[in-house]
Design goal:
Strand content: over 45%
Radius of gyration: 21 Å
Number of strands: 33
Structural class: mainly beta
Amino acid sequence: MTRILVLVLFALMGWATQGQSQTPLFSPAPGSPVTVGPGSGNIITADLNGDGHLDLVTGHIQSRILTVQLGDGAGRFAPAPNGLIALNYMPGHIQLGDLNGDKILDLGVTISDRDNVDIFLGNGKGSFSRAPGSPFTASASEEFYTRSIHFVDINEDGKLDIITANGRKNTFATLIGNGRGGFSPGQTMKLDLDPGQGRIVFACGDVDGDGHLDAVAVSGAGADLGPGRVVVQRGDGKGAFKNASGPALSVPPGAFCLELADMNGDQRLDIVISHGSNDVSVLLNNGKGVFAPAPGSPYNLGTEGWELAVGDVNRDGKKDLVVATVESVTVLLGDGRGFVPAPGSPFHAGPGSYHLAVGDVNGDGKLDVAAASFGGNAVTVLLGR
């Protein structure tokens, strides 16, 4: 009889565990969706007013504005006083960083019809004003294109510099920061990619372990353009880059977003790429900046993937993938062998969810997600359980 009771108890515990494991990993925040205005695109989470809570910055291409929403630490957001920035151009990518050394985050935005970067200095309360001398010209290109922007210290002088990537010309240009919010033109580097392969996606990080920032780019914007190619440019720590030796690595077509992250815990930066062909590629680094597909890569999302983020969303010590998938957010959990869908994934989001940001918006130690909506007027905020 005792043996039977023990077996029954074990069975009940197993059923309870199974039920808990199927609880959706994310649920809508109390204030979700957050109204930010029509056509939100690029989105960033950061503490802009120093209250310890994450806030939202969203870019709006068609209405030519940037908006700031201040978080209350519980998943709710409200417009910041004077938090709307009106522009006379279509904003491209946006980035935050302390550009003038005052310990307050500043804002950079690329201009879609020319290779200029507009800099706005933060006041520590959630609003921004244009920096003297802004916008700054990175290169002479005036071709319409949504260029990416990266704040990095490429010459190792302790001051943030800027890199913009131009996929139409397969180049990336640099602006050297003076530590006071001003910038001067640096070098423009050519990428060893075929211009016929469409636009590029781009990231920066020390991939070869020499202490200097390197540049990684992937070509191929459309599924009809054939396989994409990954190239590495090695930085010299002085602001210049040169092509790495060896052949470029082939990946699925339609690259949209590239992130550098340590995916297997070996303290080396690996490459993660989302593709319009429903795939996510993970390329592992051998420690010298040479990459090879992880076992099972590419991984199928089941739908078209756009912007992605890497983080440990279920707190098991393994890296997971969070991907904006047009009208949803798809989450894949790393299990040490590959990736499996998270309970409840995909999670509903607004129409045109092409961009997202990840951070702990309610201060409970769990990663949350904010997903933009190009076809709507609100941001979906999902809280991690």
